[in-house]
Amino acid sequence: MTATLVYVVLGASLLLAAVLPQVLHRYALSAPIVLVVTGMLVGLLPLSTGIVVDPLALRPVIEHVTEVTVLVALMGVGLALDRPLRWRVARSWRAWGPAWRLLAVGLPLTTAGVALLAWGPLGVALPAALLLGAALSPTDPVLASEVQVDGPTQEGDVDEIDETDEVRFALTSEAGLNDGLAFPFVYAAVFLASKGAASGWFGQWLAWELVGKVVVGTLAGVAVGWAVAKLVFRAPARSLRLAEVGEPLVAIAAFLLAYGVAELVEGYGFLAVFACALTIRSVDRDSDFHGHMHDVVHRLETLLTLIVLLTLGFALTNGLLANLDWRGVVLGVTLVFVIRPVAGYVSFLGYRCEEGVRGRLDRRERLVVAFFGVRGVGTIYYLAYAAGATPFAEERWLWSTVGFTIGLSVLVHGVLATPVMRRLDARREADPAVAGP
């Protein structure tokens, strides 16, 4: 009987995942909220009595499921971005200015803010505090669809393809890049817990974890993306040009290859997948095939997100919050309402962009970008990865705090995303100058 009910719940959940985007687009209620709440309600049903979710026991499964979910999301984000990043064109780099600022200033400030709050006033051990800061610092490419670009466009001149929505571009590009760039701080927390004082490992960390792995991962992703793009769009034999054959599963093959190659050469695989997607997107930019690949990736992402969010909701009412205390509540609330918004806004202090260059954000748009730092699946992966690499005495508390913070972020950002983005869209339509050049 129980097994039969599982099938019913899974089938109903899949149907829910298909219906929700069509139903909720008019309302200030995101699909992640409904999925998490549904999971919580399932967790309260009589058939769930006695089931306790222990993240320590399930850590390997949690790590691998969230790892794949983030990889799929990163591929989708990279394919969705229309704006090119031409390595040798300074104007192109300036058009990505908001992303660089959020990564270079916002990410470290968020990490430091969470870590210092946990370590100082809240009395958490330094390694655990730093791990919490690193895990909670990146915005999530999985749960932030309401504030990200929808997907690739192919209409019009190839040189005119671009986002006119600077807010969505900033949040999408940030989510694509910072999942890889948070890893150095995760490693710093692991080293603190396993090797002790920073004096014994800081030089190696700085040279390899902070710089070397970023470079290696990026190069690996670009190389795989270039090879796949040449095969898909420009293979000598017509039968090998998968863009003409119409085989969108190549997108899944590409992110698996990029991640695998990057990890083999010890680079950051998350960063490699995003770089791979951007590289593929840069070849024959106005091809409809990009949209087909994105659709396949998006469907896979929807399925994985459904599984993760339902499980998260179930866990929230069945043991995940067992070790939550006032410190975790203070930290989660402070992160969502103070640390991320302040760090995001500070990222744009002194920000100027020349007329005619993409990447211009007015004051109101900067406030929106600063606030919508959605936390989600990536945070779960980082915590599972680090806890599997070395023991943390506060691990159960870390899981409870992370679970509470993600739940809070899903609720707050999910409720506010639709009305806020609608107001920005209406403002942009009323005043075309706001949309940029």
Structural commentary:
With 437 residues, the chain is an all-alpha fold. Helix content is 69%, strand content 0%. Helix 1 packs antiparallel against helix 2 and helix 9 (202-234) packs antiparallel against helix 11 (250-264). It is globular and about 60 Å long. The chain starts with a helix and ends in a 7-residue tail after the last helix.
How would you sum up the major sheet? none
**What is the typical, i.e. mean, pLDDT?**
85
Based on CA inertia axes, which overall geometry fits?
globular
The helix content is 55-70%
Strand tally:
0
Q: Separation of termini?
A: 61 Å
The CATH topology corresponds to Na+/H+ antiporter like fold
The total of helices stands at 17
Beta-strand residue fraction? under 5%
What class, by secondary structure content?
A: mainly alpha
Our count of domains comes out at 1
Rg: 21 Å
Low-confidence stretches: 156-162
Order of helices and strands: HHHHHHHHHHHHHHHHH
CATH architecture: Up-down Bundle
Topology:
Blueprint (H helix, E strand, L loop, with lengths): L1 H23 L6 H14 L14 H22 L9 H6 L1 H23 L6 H11 L29 H16 L1 H13 L6 H33 L7 H4 L4 H15 L4 H14 L6 H28 L9 H21 L16 H9 L5 H13 L5 H36 L7
Helix pairs in contact: 1-2, 2-13, 2-17, 3-7, 3-12, 3-13, 3-16, 5-6, 5-7, 5-14, 6-8, 6-16, 7-12, 7-15, 8-9, 8-16, 9-11, 9-12, 11-12, 14-15, 14-17, 16-17
Structure described in brief:
This protein has 17 helices and no strands. The protein is mostly helical.
Q: What distinguishing features does this structure have?
A:
437 residues, mainly alpha, Na+/H+ antiporter like fold, 17 helices
